[in-house]
Design brief:
Elements: H1 30-39, H2 48-61, E1 65-69, E2 72-76, E3 84-90, E4 115-117, E5 137-139, H3 143-164, E6 176-182, H4 193-200, E7 209-212, E8 221-222, E9 226-235, E10 239-240, H5 250-253, H6 255-263, E11 268-271, E12 274-277, E13 279-287, E14 293-294, E15 297-306, H7 312-325, E16 333-339, H8 349-358, E17 363-364, H9 371-376, E18 381-383, E19 398-400, H10 401-415
Parallel strand pairs: 3-6, 3-7, 7-18, 8-17
Antiparallel strand pairs: 1-2, 2-6, 4-5, 5-19, 8-18, 9-15, 9-16, 10-14, 11-12, 13-15
Helix pairs in contact: 1-3, 2-3, 3-10, 8-10
């Protein structure tokens, strides 16, 4: 079907001709489809070619309603099922390893193009007829976060489209499905493609339950911590460093902030039976203009990862309270980014059915994910995807063939 025209809140498309998107083969085995997706570099802001490829692959399936909003692609079934579920995942990745000279070398294989290695570290090329060995490892940017999850989404779309072709007019799926493939997750929240759809077309995301295929090592992770960033700018007085007594060093003035953060003891908070660990840390500091000038300003950025038992306002006030205890004037502080946490929601029948189908014991999600956006919409949501989250964003990002197959099998079992 034709793609809807973008609205005013969608990114403006360039008039320059767009290169042809890569072809994604949804009949390929999950391991090979993941490799195809990783091979299409999609660092935040550069998702266009991958979004084009995903859209083309979904349209080719037939039977699905497909909608494009900027570089976010949404597909839906509409068979009149009693329940609707959302399967969501982001198309973008963090940047490639910073040093071009080392990309692809041992320890720096989390890049593009991807490469397969045996468990022993030997390169392996074309898969044998029997497929990849279960412990073969796929290296590449996004292997864990989260192109393996996107591959699972697409394989499930192909499965459901095939099922649609067997239904009579009087039949429906066990669950209608909405797939969301969105842009700009790995950057500030204001750019999020999912957030954009929530603002412009929230009805497209209405559902009884949602699964974000973020990496969880194959375990169900309920809810997520919230996150906020605050910037503290300490003033000073500039002077020649040879006459330092004439000035006031703004970098030195940040010492009470750093001391308070170093002494801070983060909490572990029980929320609906899951234990969420918090964290309060300085994540960047900047000041000074030259090696012979006493700095007249120094900025410290603070990140607070807070349990979903508190609101954003409560979290921000907690950080200010810590700063006040260090003698820092509130007027020197500003909030630069904030996103709410999400309670686990595992008491919802749809969530319980999902856990029963995929197995395992639910765990808390320490990082922030877009389950929080669904939670704010009133849709219970969990994280469940292939790959070790500790490998996300690392220079050696990778996922095993076994992890990809296990996640796909569990999700297929649930939808069936």
């Amino acid at each position: 079907m034709p793609v809807d025209e973008p609205d005013a809140d969608s990114p403006v498309e360039s008039a320059a001709p767009r290169p042809a998107p890569p072809i994604l083969d949804l009949t390929a085995e999950i391991t090979e489809l993941t490799e195809q997706i990783i091979a299409c570099e999609s660092v935040s802001g550069n998702e266009r070619r991958l979004a084009d490829a995903v859209e083309s692959a979904l349209l080719e399936l037939g039977g699905l309603w497909v909608h494009r909003d900027g570089d976010t692609v949404i597909a839906r079934t509409d068979t009149g099922a009693d329940q609707r579920v959302v399967l969501a995942g982001h198309l973008d990745t963090v940047p490639l390893p910073s040093d071009p000279e080392t990309r692809g070398a041992p320890g720096f294989r989390g890049t593009v193009p991807p490469q397969w290695m045996t468990a022993e570290g030997t390169p392996c090329g074309t898969p044998p007829a029997a497929g990849r060995a279960k412990d073969d490892v796929l290296y590449g940017r996004g292997a864990t976060d989260m192109k393996g999850g996107v591959a699972v989404q697409l394989k499930l779309a192909a499965d459901v489209a095939a099922r649609l072709r067997t239904l009579t007019a009087a039949q429906s799926l066990a669950r209608d499905v909405t797939w969301v493939f969105y842009d700009h997750e790995e950057v500030e929240a204001s750019k999020s493609g999912l957030g954009r759809v929530l603002r412009t077309s929230p009805d497209l995301l209405a559902a009884d339950f949602a699964v974000l295929l973020e990496p969880t090592h194959g375990a169900v992770e309920g809810g997520c911590n919230g996150t906020c960033r605050l910037r503290v700018t300490m003033p000073g007085v500039a002077a020649h460093s040879g006459r330092a007594w004439m000035g006031r060093n703004a970098i030195h003035a940040t010492a009470p902030i750093l001391a308070a953060l170093e002494a801070y003891e983060p909490r572990t908070v029980d929320v609906d039976g899951l234990a969420y660990r918090e964290g309060l840390n300085a994540v960047s500091i900047s000041g000074g203009i030259a090696g012979n000038v006493i700095p007249d300003a120094c900025t410290v950025e603070i990140n607070y990862r807070f349990a979903p038992d508190k609101t954003e306002a409560q979290a921000q006030e907690h950080v200010r309270q810590v700063l006040r205890s260090a003698g820092i004037d509130e007027e020197l502080t500003e909030v630069t980014d904030s996103s709410p946490g999400a309670r686990p929601g595992l008491d919802h029948p749809a969530a319980q059915a999902f856990v029963a189908a995929v197995g395992g014991s639910p765990k808390p999600k320490y990082g922030w994910t877009d389950v929080a956006r669904f939670s704010a919409l009133g849709v219970p949501a969990v994280n469940f995807g292939p790959g070790d989250p500790l490998l996300a964003h690392t220079d050696d990002e990778h996922v095993t063939a076994e992890a990809l197959r296990a996640c796909y099998a569990a999700m297929h079992r649930w939808l069936s």
